[in-house]
Amino acid sequence: MAFARFVARRLAEMAAALLAASFVIFGALYLAPGNPASFLLSGRAATPAALAAINAQYHLNDPFAVQYLRWLGQVLHGDFGRSIEYRTPVSHLLAARLPTTLLLVAMSLVLVVVLGLVLGWIGAVRGGAVDSTILVATTFALGTPSFVAAILLQGLFAVKLHWFPSGGSGTGLGQMLWHLTLPSVALALYLIGMLARVTRSAMLESLSHDHVTVARSRGVPQRQVIRRHVFRNSLGTVLTMGGLIISTLVICTVLVETAFSLDGIGQLLDLSTTTKDFPVVQAISLIIVALFMVVNLVVDLLHPLVDPRVTLGTRSTAA
Questions:
Q1: d(C-alpha 26, C-alpha 64), whole Å
Q2: Protein fold of 99-306
Q3: Which of 146, 103, 158 is nearest to 259 (CA)?
Q4: More reliable by pLDDT, 219 or 310
Q5: 313 pLDDT above the threshold of 60
Q6: Higher pLDDT, 46 or 300
Q7: Are 230 and 203 in contact (CB under 8 A)?
Q8: Which residues pair with 89 in a beta bridge?
Q9: What 3-state DSSP class applies to 89?
């Protein structure tokens, strides 16, 4: 019953937060300078009749509250409206570009989790010169934004060495994996450094706990102590970063997809923001907010399974 009440409460909170976010997302774009009608006309002069027809077709003259409620009702039925630039339903645009972004985020997430945890583990356990080397490498990763990493990787591995393509998403799973290798590394680099640092710090703190000292004094093998007592106790701290990692990956796809000319959601958001394609920007922004909330809910549900000291609805302050 406690689990069901917790889930119901969190879902209600998510619904309220999404409603507030939808209002902000819908209203913020209308505060920006410019008018979508000017883009529809492509800079051409228009007669009052033509301008009135455009405003009527896209309901641009309706009061803000009417426009918002109409849009919200459509969204609740899975209809994000029609793109002003592409003259096609937004849902069709998202469906066509979503596979590229999902694959890019998935590849980057695998790199972040595997390399971040392994480097953090090795740094905490080995110490000495190995730890110092890992600290230098993770410091470099933390100081390299995604768009800088994209430029460096393109220049070295695509332009100079010709090992990977410099842009495009490719066709078919095999080509897509090849085309998305450099973008996934560029997207993951910063987060690998961050996760490695957090994992290392959490494990070093766990190594100083009394139960670890007791286990060692009883002759428990070092490898078993690290795996069962140190690393497992550190997973709670690492897991709390899950929402931050995934949301950062999704947001930074805008930079990486633009740099590598990938036909994903991130590049679509960048282009749509420039052209004031309101329906597309609103749909993608709302999806990102919803994804962030869902990921954080999943983290809250998994946290008690990883760290028994944590109960539903709370977060552990210990590493």
A1: 9
A2: MetI-like fold (1.10.3720)
A3: 146
A4: 219
A5: no
A6: 300
A7: yes
A8: 82
A9: strand
